[in-house]
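Marked as duplicate of an earlier ticket. Keeping the data here for the record.
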Amino acid sequence: LGDTAHALRWLDRLDQLAPGMPEAFEERGDCLDGSARDAQWVAAADAWTRKGDAAAAERLLDRLLDARPASAAGWNSRGILESARHRGDDAEAAWLKAIACDPSQLDAAANLALLYENSNRLDDAERIARAAAGFVREGGRQSGAIEIHLVLGKLARRRSDLAGALAHLDRIAALSPRSEERRVGKECRSR
């Protein structure tokens, strides 16, 4: 194929023709370094999981986590895979590792908080979600931010704290992509 750039162009074209094809994501990841490789391998593992091939997803995640044991995205994907396999303890351990690798990994925190909330471990859910909420930025899309406030809103509702639940719903509305579209639309109309 020649050089890496040429190979990546072919793999991008393959992905256009067969979106989500895990092999393309995986091979593209082989051509990359660092966080770009992590992102491609995580995308490939997620695609394998969606295709129902948990063994292939696990092999790829093992490969990623062996090469980059501090990959928060890799550990988050491992947690998702284990949760899909109904292995709650393994999912919890993976999400805790993701958060230990990167405390601002909101997706892992949201997944773990939801696991705790669904298991009636409400204090644990609130502890994880509140810690993660400190990493939510104002403005723009931030993966996991809406889910963090969803968990906090559900917990407030379960405590019969209607004002707290509504405050988190307001945060969700402010963080949603549609909120940004409405804000931009108002600015354009006011000109």
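See parent ticket for discussion. Residues 95 and 111 are 7 Å apart (CA to CA).
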